[in-house]
Amino acid sequence: MFAVGVWCLTNHYFLFQNAVLFYLLVCKTNRYMENSYQSPLQSPGSQSPLPNATAALVLGIIGILGCFCYGVPGLICAIIALVLANKDIRLYNANPSYYTPGSFANVKAGKICAIIALSLSCLYIICAIIVIAMFGFAILSNPQEIINQMR
After folding, report:
1. pLDDT in tens, 57-108
2. For the stretch 47-67, what's the b/e string if a residue is b when 16 or more beta carbons lie within 10 angstroms of its beta carbon?
3. Quick one: pLDDT at residue 58?
4. What is the pLDDT of residue 107?
5. Rounded distance, CA 113 to CA 105, Å?
6. Tens-digit pLDDT profile for residues 118-133
7. Domain edges within the chain
8. Residue 48 — φ and ψ, nearest 5°?
9. What is the pTM of this model?
10. How confident is the model at residue 9 (pLDDT cuts 50, 70, 90)?
11. Which residue, 16, 99, 107, 146, shows the most beta carbons closer than 10 Å to its own?
């Protein structure tokens, strides 16, 4: 029972730590985004935002939150966010004058969140597999005692 309590406290600590890191990341990103957005309808030569910048950022954030649901939703969202972010980074690097710097900052923040979510999800899945394996080996080591306890 003590191990379960320690496991839960550790998960809540990581959730709090990720929330603080995300807050710092968003505040840092917002400094670069001030007055950088221009509407694509202003003039023919104006800059437009990257097409998947917001989606990559949102999926990266959802990935961080989803990694504590046994890791699978976080893993899926993080992979999708990484694909979208890499696609937009290639678009921006091909022609940086077409896109706003604020949307590129969103893409970079989304990629960072996706990498964090991917690593935490993988870590959580590995820990869950280890815990399940430990309980499985404990049950298989002495099945007669488990049967007697169930009666």
Report:
1. 999 999 999 998 989 999 999 999 999 999 999 999 999 999 999 999 999 9
2. bebbebbebbbbbbbbbbbbb
3. 97
4. 97
5. 12
6. 999 999 999 999 999 9
7. 50-141
8. -125, 160
9. 0.67
10. very low
11. 107
* C-alpha–C-alpha distance, residues 78 and 23, integer Å: 18
Which residues face 48 on adjacent strands? 99
Scan for tokens 């809540």, then name that residue: 12
Q: Which are the contacts of 67, defined by CB distance < 8 A and separation ≥ 6?
A: 73, 74, 75, 78, 117, 120, 121, 124
Written in H, E and C, the secondary structure of the chain is CHHHHHHHHHHHHHHHHHHHHHHHHHHHHHHHHCCCCCCCCCCCCCCECCCCHHHHHHHHHHHHHHCCCCCHHHHHHHHHHHHHHHHHHHHHHHCHHHECHHHHHHHHHHHHHHHHHHHHHHHHHHHHHHHHHHHHHHHHHCHHHHHHHHC
Task: Read off the tokens for 128.
Answer: 């869950």
Distance CA 76, CA 19 (A): 20
- The residue with tokens 């990484």 is 82
